[in-house]
Amino acid sequence: MSTIVVDCGASSTKWAAQDLGGSIKRGKAPNLTGHIFNDQEWLRAQGVIEEIARSAPKVTRAIFGVTGLGSGTQIAEQISVMARRALGIEAVEVCNDMELAHAAIFKPGEGILIYGGTGSVVVSRNRNGELVRAGGYGFIIGDEGGGFWIGREALRHVTDLWDLGKDPKESILGNKILGIVSPADWYGLREYVYKGGRQAVAALAPVVTEAARAGSDEAHSILVGAGTHLADLTKRLLKKIPTSRFAAMGGVFHGDSILFESLSSQLGNAIERIEDDIPERWLGMNSGSA
Predict the structure, then answer these.
(1) pLDDT tens, 88-113?
(2) What is the pTM of this model?
(3) Three-state SS for 18?
């Protein structure tokens, strides 16, 4: 069976297709999420799926992992219908992107995946293959330890200094944060945050890493705190899925090792860092069923 695996994210979509001979073709497409709530968004989603169908080789099976999507929901079924029409096949599976990612790394019931991107979530699958999670409730009420949380903590450092009548530019972290906004005052920062939204705040996470490398105690503390939050989520999931195997992936792990070391020290176990693309890894992990 020839298979295409599609990892649909908030930033971009990546896919890998394997033919019957084992050869793999890779590609990218615009971002696609499960947050589809009006006709315009549905038209856009259809366009992304049709673009994938035009670029990919002919396959007999497709698996879509979509961020922000609940498996078995009406939106998942509608995406499945679109994919079946665009690809001209009936064998289409649609699931949450974290479910796809876990299946690319572990067998059911085997390990816990810790994800820290813009948001954060910790997932596993029980022995029946059902997704089990802790966290991932969005930036308004959760996502502690993710990029948005890290960026927001850095912003609070700046605003706290303003409240105390101090110049944030005299702080390593504050100086780096204000260095990316213009004008470098509350009005400039307000526009940067509220015009750019969640992604703009999360984009500050690498700045926190830079500040920590430059010797900022505040930045170091934020990264350690992010690791603590991710460890706490993992410990919650451990009560449901006892395991000694862990993997971590996502943008927050791409910078300095402070956050990763904080997470590792609190779990007391070795953690595999995942940096390769999920679709190709899934094909390698599930070659017998591809």
Answers:
(1) 999 999 999 999 999 999 999 899 99
(2) 0.88
(3) strand
